[in-house]
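Sample entry (412 residues):
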Amino acid sequence: MRKYKIKPKNSYYYYKKKKTMFKSLTIIGVVFALIGLAFLLSGKLQSAVLDISKMTFAKSDESSSEEEPVYINGSDVKYDLFRMPQTAKGIYIPAGKANNYEEYIKLAKKTAVNTFVIDVKNDYGYLTFRSENPKLIEMGCVKEEPPITNMRQVINRLYEEDIYPIARIVVFKDSVIPKKLPDRAVLDKAGKVYANKAGDTWLNPYDKRNWDYILEVCKEAVDMGFKEIQFDYIRFHESMNADTVVLGEEMTKTEVITAFTKYMCEQLSDYGVYVSADVFGAVITSPIDSAIVGQDFKEMSKYLDYICPMVYPSHYAKGTFGIEYPHLDAYGIILKSMELAQDEIKKIPREDRKAIIRPWLQDFTMSSLKPYQPYGPKEIKQQIQGTYDAGLNEWIFWNAAGRYTEAGLDDK
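Predicted structure, serialized as tokens:
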């Protein structure tokens, strides 16, 4: 039977054990005092104290060694103990930078950051760490030399520092499986694997074999210790339509993405992890954009624990929300977009509302935009304040290179 080795000071198991022991010692202490009073005049105090002391310290000695690892059988793991809520204030860490986790931990200690989003299945379709899972090895997504050399060590350090680990899993964008199993890819009208202008290929969202494959990747992330699964590229590419690719006839694009979301949330519920998904900011209020990529903001919100709109001010078109240059008004864009997002959530019947809104904000500069506006501490703080003023508590910053503005992340 497989056993899980848990560092005592980081495990809920040891925490509960230590807490129980503390309660026991407290009770024994009270009993000790009462006995002392009762026998003080009878001359029996010394022997009573001796007996109780032997019993108490013998138990204490048996369970107080924090250096010894605690072993529990895999069948005894209760995933519901693993699920703990976190008001996430995070940053994205690309797989190529994850080995520098100590530097990011230093950043977290100096700022409000308490959450790391780390690549697990990357933009190309590869797992970012070694795995012995035969199902994943067979699919070809496990590399001999992955970018993250010791993911367990990374996760252990995050647990030690009370940093919330989120696994970023790129869902349908994939360059691995379409080469190995082309029948699982989105196909063009000629029956060949479809590639967009950038050369990217995609798993077919209508093929439920792909759903189970992604689920297997999620389970690997859970076993590694991640507390939340975050789906990215949980959509169709915007170039995919009835004229360019073969689409399923039984469901629309929004229906199949919603069905996938529901399925994954149901399947992962027994593992005690939270489930989130990244969506385009435009789909919050635009039915047209929603239909193009297949993301229905309200419907997905019924199943997810968190929904994460990517509302980077630099990505909004001129004049959005009446703001001539959106990238020059970081506060206004975030405030308005998040107010509208909450308005959409409120349209869902109260009993069906589930997802918490947690926006993706930008810590990068779009140098191509005119007038030019570098993003620094001021713009970072403006986005955070816009989030708070919209009535939300959580945020995550994106920088593809993993470089962040420390002075802007102090949350003050």
